[in-house]
């Protein structure tokens, strides 16, 4: 948690960090990934058979290496909007017998050469957990139960035996399952009303948990600020053994929300992720409200929020049906850093967050046939995933604020937008970490930093200007390492992310 005091721009900023004041545990799953059958994410991204850079499974080794550097704990699959017409049985068994299908989400053809078993193998090589999303569009409950049985079944039953026939004896033990994706959206095949979705989600959840009570089921929310979120939580967060739920375990474990931010103007772009912070706060309150109204006992585990799609994305400049390949700038990298600050600050409420997506599609990683490119947004993700783990700790910021327009517009009247956006953590190794994003385009801030003891490692991400990019054959934005003796004031450079790291007393 980071508190804030507004100063005039003429006053010197102060940041106070308190490593002894642990606020909440940071779930490693906030650094999760997302792969969808969209553009070049799967084919030509994580899966590229015949390419010299691929292994014997057809997996791009450079992509695997980069994702291993992030220590990605969970990866969501197979979408996304793609889920609404995806039939998992098309993607298992002999590849020469798999049907090619029209794909309606992104208006392409799905060859089904990469499916459940390939994804599970890829997760095994990456050493990450799978997170699967059920087809709530053209799919059926029988089909969903079959997929769960195929992945997790241990008995002498049809789909468990089909998995064995396809070469996998032991179950995959998939823990995380989503009850559909963005079913509220007009772009969805089989778009639903909130009433229809809540009824269907609850009925599916009952059946799925009868088959495997150990799974984590994730309710499909909207953006956390919508009546959809209130209604679905109100009708689906029920006490175990209630009239609509005879299950001995809660049916719903997490509530998903999605949000993308962007602006072609730097300051609205860099401050836009603060909308996600407010959305998390509202969703958390709606979870509490549903539990209170439905009489859920305090002993029943409180659901967390699954922010399973987030990123900087302008769907006009990077159209989904054209592959959604963004060319990110330093401004976008700073926005991603603010996104990650939000996740650390709100760690009490977050059980997972999945950047959309892991490669090529609105991604920090881009592949060509012979190399991989780390975009500007890679560097904040790398620093946070490497260092901002363990516990969120108390911090306080006193500084001036940006007072201009915001995107979305409602943000201006809802939260402060300080020049210095801050989060702090304490790792299990005893090191404290302070992440500071200076969003100002022209001004560095000489800042008193209270709470640092001894010498600090310094990691700085910046570039020549906010439009700097790594997609022009040169790496204009990267991380620079240095040290600071902790004395005097520290100058946070203009348009930069700075991570200070020191051994806490």
Automatic annotation (TrEMBL):
Where is the signal peptide, in residue numbers?
Answer: none
Task: Pinpoint the Alpha-L-arabinofuranosidase C-terminal domain residues.
Answer: 308-496
A Pfam match: ASD1_dom
What is this protein's record name? non-reducing end alpha-L-arabinofuranosidase
Any one biological process term the GO annotation gives? polysaccharide catabolic process
Biological function? Alpha-L-arabinofuranosidase involved in the degradation of arabinoxylan, a major component of plant hemicellulose. Acts only on small linear 1,5-alpha-linked L-arabinofuranosyl oligosaccharides.
Question: Is Hydrolase given among the entry's keywords?
Answer: yes
Say which family it is in: Belongs to the glycosyl hydrolase 51 family.
Molecular function terms in GO for this entry? alpha-L-arabinofuranosidase activity
Task: Give the originating organism.
Answer: Penicillium frequentans
The protein's annotated catalytic reaction(s) are: Hydrolysis of terminal non-reducing alpha-L-arabinofuranoside residues in alpha-L-arabinosides
Which biological pathway?
Glycan metabolism; L-arabinan degradation
**Gene3D superfamilies xref list:** Glycosidases, Golgi alpha-mannosidase II
The EC number(s) this enzyme carries: 3.2.1.55
The alphabetized UniProt keywords are:
Carbohydrate metabolism, Glycosidase, Hydrolase
């Amino acid at each position: 948690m980071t508190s804030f005091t507004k100063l005039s721009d003429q006053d010197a900023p102060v940041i106070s960090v308190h490593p002894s004041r642990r606020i909440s545990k940071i779930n490693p799953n906030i650094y999760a990934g997302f792969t969808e059958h969209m553009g070049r994410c799967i084919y030509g991204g994580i899966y590229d058979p015949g390419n010299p850079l691929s292994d014997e499974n057809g997996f791009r080794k450079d992509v695997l290496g980069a994702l291993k550097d992030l220590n990605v704990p969970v990866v969501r699959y197979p979408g996304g909007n793609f889920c609404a017409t995806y039939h998992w049985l098309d993607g298992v068994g002999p590849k020469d017998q798999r049907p090619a299908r029209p794909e309606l989400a992104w208006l392409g053809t799905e060859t089904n050469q990469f499916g459940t078993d390939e994804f599970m193998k890829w997760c095994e090589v990456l050493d990450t957990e799978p997170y699967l999303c059920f087809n709530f569009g053209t799919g059926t409950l029988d089909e969903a139960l079959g997929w769960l049985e195929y992945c997790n079944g241990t008995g002498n039953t049809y789909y468990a035996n089909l998995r064995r026939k396809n070469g996998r004896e032991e179950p995959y033990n998939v823990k995380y399952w989503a009850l559909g994706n963005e079913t509220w959206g007009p772009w969805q095949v089989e778009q639903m009303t909130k009433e229809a979705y809540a009824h269907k989600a609850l009925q599916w959840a009952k059946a799925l948990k009868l088959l495997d009570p150990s799974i984590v089921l994730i309710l499909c929310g909207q953006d956390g600020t919508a009546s959809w979120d209130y209604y679905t939580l109100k009708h689906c967060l029920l006490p175990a053994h209630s009239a609509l739920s005879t299950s001995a375990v809660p049916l719903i474990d997490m509530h998903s929300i999605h949000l993308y931010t962007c602006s072609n103007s730097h300051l609205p772009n860099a401050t836009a992720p603060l909308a996600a912070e407010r959305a998390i706060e509202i969703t958390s309150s709606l979870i509490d409200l549903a539990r209170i109204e439905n009489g859920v006992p305090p002993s029943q585990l409180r659901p967390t929020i699954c922010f399973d799609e987030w990123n900087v994305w302008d769907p006009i400049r990077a159209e989904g049906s054209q592959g959604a390949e963004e060319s990110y700038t330093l401004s976008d990298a700073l926005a991603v850093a603010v996104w990650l600050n939000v996740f650390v600050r709100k760690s009490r409420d977050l059980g997972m967050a999945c950047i959309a997506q892991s490669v090529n599609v609105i991604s920090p990683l881009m592949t060509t046939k012979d190399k991989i490119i780390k975009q500007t947004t890679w560097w904040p993700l790398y620093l946070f995933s490497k260092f901002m783990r363990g516990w969120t700790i108390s911090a306080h910021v006193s500084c001036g604020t940006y007072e201009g327009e915001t995107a979305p517009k409602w943000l201006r009247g809802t939260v402060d937008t300080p020049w210095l956006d801050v989060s702090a953590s304490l790792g299990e190794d005893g090191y404290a970490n302070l992440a500071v994003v200076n969003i100002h385009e022209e001004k560095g801030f000489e800042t008193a930093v209270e709470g640092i003891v001894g010498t600090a490692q310094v990691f700085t991400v910046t570039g020549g200007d906010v439009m700097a990019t790594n997609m022009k054959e040169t790496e204009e934005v990267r991380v620079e390492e240095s040290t600071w003796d902790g004395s005097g004031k520290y100058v946070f450079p203009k348009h930069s992310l700075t991570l200070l790291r020191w051994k806490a007393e």
